[in-house]
Amino acid sequence: MTAHPNKEKLAYDKKKLRHKYRLLRQQLPPNTQKLHAQKLAAQLNKLKGFIQATHVGIYQASDGEISCDAITQHSSKRFYLPKVLFHPKRSLVFTLRQGRKPITKNRYGIPEMSRPTLRPIRQLDCILMPLVAFDETGHRLGMGGGFYDRSLLFKAGKHSSKKPLLIGLAHECQKASALPKEPWDIGLDWLVTEKQIYHFSYRP
Fold first, then answer.
1. How far is CA 127 from CA 80, 124, 132, 164, 175, in A?
2. In sequence order, what are the beta bridge partners of 127?
3. Burial grade of 5 (CB within 10 A; 0-12, 13-18, 19 or more)
4. Which of 40, 96, 97, 165 makes an SS bond possible with 49, Cβ 3.0 to 4.6 Å?
């Protein structure tokens, strides 16, 4: 059976956008990457929802993603890394980041805690989310695996849970004028770059 033309076009558009914005972030020199991460951490520490958070989901940066290292240094918060569950739903759980425990890589090359202490995603205060691109409506374009969207379905709709707060992290150069949207996409509450903080008022 042939795919619907609109779906094919959407997939093609997303592929082009991913290539464009991944290249933009990959081309940032290491010293610029480090400076952006430091400036972003300073911006994030102005955000009340993050300041008040105790249990925070983070990620291990790769492929030019902005690093969380400046955020986690000298902090008393408890930070959790995502771990992919491939069965049955290819979704995420979060595991306490503990420095003495070795980190392994899953089949996608994403670092995970090898002997994890789990925390349900609903019990996180906020999640700092990686992304390929974002737009002014709070839409986030990820790498295409759909792990975050599947794991955060309970955040969809008018009566969605307020926790965890969803905070996207990005370089300012990853901002797009508009991104293609699909019904299952979960929007961000906030987006932080090295330059500013974006708030998306339609979120609860």
1. 9, 7, 16, 6, 20
2. 57, 166
3. exposed
4. 165
